[in-house]
Amino acid sequence: MANLREISVSAALNLLSAFAFLVAFAILRLQPINDRVYFPKWYRRGIRNSPRRSGVCVTRFVNLDWRTYIKFLNWMPAALRMPELELIDHAGLDSVVYIRIYLLGLKVIGPLAVLAFLVLVPVNWTGETLEGVKNLAYNDIDKLSISNVPDGSKSSEELLHLPEYCYTVKFSFCTKYLFRFSVMRFQFILFRFWVHIVMSYVFALWTFYVLYVEYKEVAAMRLRYLASENRRPDQFTVLVRNVPPDPDETVSEHIEHFFRVNHPDSYLTHQTGFGGVVGTKVDAIDYYSSEIQKLSEAEALEREKVLSDPKAIVLAAFVSFKSRWAAAVCAQTQFSHNPTIWLTEWAPEPRDVYWRNLAIPYFDLTIRRLLMAIALFFLIFFFMIPIAFVQSLANIEGIEKVFPFLTPLIETKSVRSFIQGFLPGIVLKIFLILLPTILMMMSKVEGFSSRSSLDRRSAGKYHLFLLVNVFLGSIITGTAFQQLKTFLHQPPTEIPKTVGESIPMKATFFITYIMVDGWAGIAAEILRLVPLVIFHLKNMFLVKTEQDREEAMDPGCLNFATYEPKIQLYFLLGLVYSAVTPVLLPFVIIFFAFSYVVFRHQVINVYDQRYESGGSFWPDVHRRLLIGLLISQLLLMGLLSTKNIEKSTIALLPLPVLTIWFHVYCKGRFQSAFVRFSLQDAMTKDTLERATEPNLNLRAYLKDAYVHPVFKGRSHFESPLLVPDEENNTLVLTRRSS
Amino acid sequence: MANLREISVSAALNLLSAFAFLVAFAILRLQPINDRVYFPKWYRRGIRNSPRRSGVCVTRFVNLDWRTYIKFLNWMPAALRMPELELIDHAGLDSVVYIRIYLLGLKVIGPLAVLAFLVLVPVNWTGETLEGVKNLAYNDIDKLSISNVPDGSKSSEELLHLPEYCYTVKFSFCTKYLFRFSVMRFQFILFRFWVHIVMSYVFALWTFYVLYVEYKEVAAMRLRYLASENRRPDQFTVLVRNVPPDPDETVSEHIEHFFRVNHPDSYLTHQTGFGGVVGTKVDAIDYYSSEIQKLSEAEALEREKVLSDPKAIVLAAFVSFKSRWAAAVCAQTQFSHNPTIWLTEWAPEPRDVYWRNLAIPYFDLTIRRLLMAIALFFLIFFFMIPIAFVQSLANIEGIEKVFPFLTPLIETKSVRSFIQGFLPGIVLKIFLILLPTILMMMSKVEGFSSRSSLDRRSAGKYHLFLLVNVFLGSIITGTAFQQLKTFLHQPPTEIPKTVGESIPMKATFFITYIMVDGWAGIAAEILRLVPLVIFHLKNMFLVKTEQDREEAMDPGCLNFATYEPKIQLYFLLGLVYSAVTPVLLPFVIIFFAFSYVVFRHQVINVYDQRYESGGSFWPDVHRRLLIGLLISQLLLMGLLSTKNIEKSTIALLPLPVLTIWFHVYCKGRFQSAFVRFSLQDAMTKDTLERATEPNLNLRAYLKDAYVHPVFKGRSHFESPLLVPDEENNTLVLTRRSS
């Protein structure tokens, strides 16, 4: 275990490396040649153009103005300057709500840290356990943690034996004094634990308060956003799935009939989804069309075929209504008494639709979810088995067998030791890099119909993985499977004890983890090294036209499914250590503050969201935060019960009950704002629109809103060679109009 | 432990006593004087009248026709004869669906018993464990149970040591033979366990099949019932709760306004609920009015006051619509973006409304449910503490203190020993009799707004209580709290082992339990001893008019909250013992068959349901049955793992996963039929009605549908003295018209 000085050195080193990243970023972003890497969003919006062709050639690539380098941290205040409303307008509500998670981290952990340093650190510091136990390796950090508070049972035992002792020395004045002192000391030890218990209540109540206010605010933001939003196709549209086949009618006729009967006054039109049957073909088309020119004619033919083939139509449709009110009614009600057919849900916005999953029958869905749940269980607890297998294959002998010509090189001593040392680690690293993709594939198999729900679902899976394999895995040695086995053979009350007991000892490890994974990760995030290299490579070898350059530019997007579970891990660490080792908290706070600035910058300048869900992921964030709080409470109970203060566990028992109740309450109070669109709001918006635009032709407006991207004339899936010149021009024009 | 003969004797005795009950019932029911006790339903429906006054006086009270006594079991076929459709018409869907639970018991457990006796009993019987262990007390029943199958580890150990043995005797022909025999024996033992494992899969699949078919059938019955039902106020009406107060408008105006805006085309009218503020007063009125005549004027005044006082109006309303379609839409959609106000739900039928709970704010509701959940936990695990306290008070000394004049009597030796022996038992018995009432009070505090949901909720609580305190409590000795403590300090895998291991040993106990509690309970049910005595007492002392006699007659109703959890206990026993000790199954089957006939008779002749919910309790029945199945599977896994067959636990692992998946699937597939009314069905019914009755005045029809019983002119809460004579006559007339 490292002591305080070692941690300080490590922190300084990590801060330095993060600083180096920032300097590199500051220099690189000022070079015009990198402009499209660091400000792609402005290009996408047409506000920023390629550097002007006029002027000296060098300045087109390198920034020679020395003054700009001095203010190299300028981007930070710049990132913070844009007001929230403008940011919503600029980047969408999803991004704004997402960066609020970091702010929430500051709001929750900040006051916790202040309180902990004012109250708990002094209480821990004046405990004497660790000084007394000279033979145990302890360090300064442990002295600030709960480990330094003496064990209740030992002190009480001491107290019990004292009268005997006093008796033997025949109650001199000295022993009386000693006795009184010991009683006081024992009371003080008890007092110390009560301070911890009271503080954990204060922490929980503060977290509840902040979470409640935040949930309320996010819900209000979402409602304001939905209310202020311009007319959008998804406001009038409902996704209908599992349309039962009809022997006499085509699917389209059947749907039209059904809705004309059941929503006689408000049904407007519908579009059936394409893609279920021809899903893979369509994708193949995308792929080839962007690669090989000669296939484009075949593609056109295929497209023709798909459009005319009735079998290619899947049993799902986007049904549009004359008013938002009617759409809201249709999305929230059940049509058939068989709840597995005519399933309606609020349509995701057109970009958000995940076309392939529209037409999965109900029974298949339940089977798929069962299978994926089982697969997730095995992935979390047994992922080391295939990795170990690949690692056993990817040894020197294996490589020599497959690539015999490499043998002389490999047999070199230095190369050999390099391979032996790094290969297993690299295999694991590759798996961890691939993991989010694997989880996303699993979510896709589960059959969710929008990209936003896929992201949310994958995030849930990743959160579980991190919880078991990073958090628990770091505290308890051994693979997740071994943990599982231990846990199954331990009493349920022992689990929080086992984990809780080792929590204080792992504080230094997690501090290092926060610095290496958290701080450095964020600094790497802003540097965008991979997109930078790829952009320049593409620019050098592939880019020929202006549109090529446009496509070489990869703004990326907020990867909710990967980032959010990681934030949850830092929340968990903050909450767990707030009552145990408060020294860890400042590191978490720096992470949140730094991340907040960086992601605000990225959201403003870089990321281009693929869809807009109106912050619909907040209930998940809230729930997972409460799971973290619950875990921290259970672990504290476990830890305190190993300190032999019997009453402490009982005194803490109401905390998890309160937490669960708070979850239930918030869910009932706010969740529906993220799932449903209320009739009152719909009616208000409808009335307003009817008053301002009485002659609106909604049918024309909705005509091509929900059409699979391949069938859209102007989609960027389109091979540019197929598009007539004038269309291509308008395409560029619309993109460029400021 | 009793052996097979003892069990047979006990069974014979119990059958005899049940038979005695039946004979008593057969005799009593034939006496005209008891007619109103055993056929109250027909009186209520006006089809049966009091015995004719003509004829000899004796025959008015006693049946002298000896021929009727011979056919004393005639009521059984008579009870079975009424076809189901007629029964629905006669007794309502709730009753019909309820007695189907017993039939379901036969369908599930019957084939299980046949299979178990064909396959498992021979396999168990030919095991030799218990014959080998001579010093252990075992009995014939254990020989038929899984206990008789030898332990896997011992046999395999034997097998491992055999080669050594063979080596020492130098491989004679004899040892070779012995070796081969032992291998065969070991394989046979393994085979026996595999038979149990395969059979438990067969049992689970059969249960799934029957449950699925039953759920489907009940859902279909409910849908047919709703479709064929006559026009009823609740079809057009939605219960709106948590109406936000408005500073400018009265509640009534506010509601009218709100719905005119948000449902402009379909809103018809509304009735606000009375009772929140004046709830207790109203009840007081009921009480006094039926007791003291002189208060009736004060009552009239009070009623006047309530009707004119705006503060007495609670923030809840019954809002009616012009069509069922609009009501269905309103019940299923969310109005405000704040999901805690303007809460809408499908209105319960007028009789089903629980008026007092209509106006509880959302926050109060969540707090109430939290408190009741905690209270339920303590009730289940700590109920013995207050009982022990009362028992400690209710001893001889306590009685002597409170009633000193009883001292001489109590000090008599025989009385003293009687009190000492019986008093503690009586205190416990009184608690158990009061328990359903306590649970119902708790459900009322939770704030459910209909009697049917109160019943369902109480049943859930009672089910938990029986599960912990009767099922687990009988298997593991010690109070529920001690069990809880043991379980908390045991690994989760140990719990099924501990419980599972003692399961076979408790078979005889549960067989006796089924006979005493089940068989005798049902026989007592049909005899209706308490209503019989009370009716005759009332008849003797209180009854003066014909209406008094009408009111003295207490038909009672199916007490779902108490009966259903008890059925679940028998299901649980059947499922748990099906793979362990199949001998128990016939006893369960007899219980189900006997109950089916008895309750069919009661439903036809006696019970008068207080409300009709259309079988909406079925999802609960289904879920609890699956919980029973799950428990049986976990216990079998625990039991087999103590038999040291390692693979058996793994082989059984898919079973609980399958069970949970089946639950999720059925829930998605069927549950909504019990919660929502589909738009398609509503539209069909509306269209039909519009065609057949184009001039229907719905407003007049709905005018007084949802009015608190006290404010209704013709309610039986009404003190008869207040009602003018002619109204009283029509009242009797409507009741009597066949």
UniProtKB/TrEMBL annotation, chains A, B:
Residue span(s) of domain CSC1/OSCA1-like cytosolic: 269-357
All copies of domain CSC1/OSCA1-like 7TM region, residue ranges: 368-640
Keywords: Calcium, Ion channel, Ion transport, Membrane, Transmembrane, Transmembrane helix, Transport
Compartments (UniProt record): Membrane
Pfam families for the chain: PHM7_cyt, RSN1_7TM, RSN1_TM
GO molecular function: calcium-activated cation channel activity
Primary residence: membrane
Membrane topology (UniProt): Multi-pass membrane protein
Transferase listed as a keyword: no
Occurrences of domain CSC1/OSCA1-like N-terminal transmembrane (ranges): 8-213
Listed transmembrane segments: 12-30, 101-121, 189-212, 370-394, 418-441, 462-481, 569-599, 625-642, 648-666
GO cellular component: plasma membrane
Presence of keyword Transport: yes
Family (UniProt): Belongs to the CSC1 (TC 1.A.17) family.
Name of the molecule in the record: CSC1-like protein isoform X1
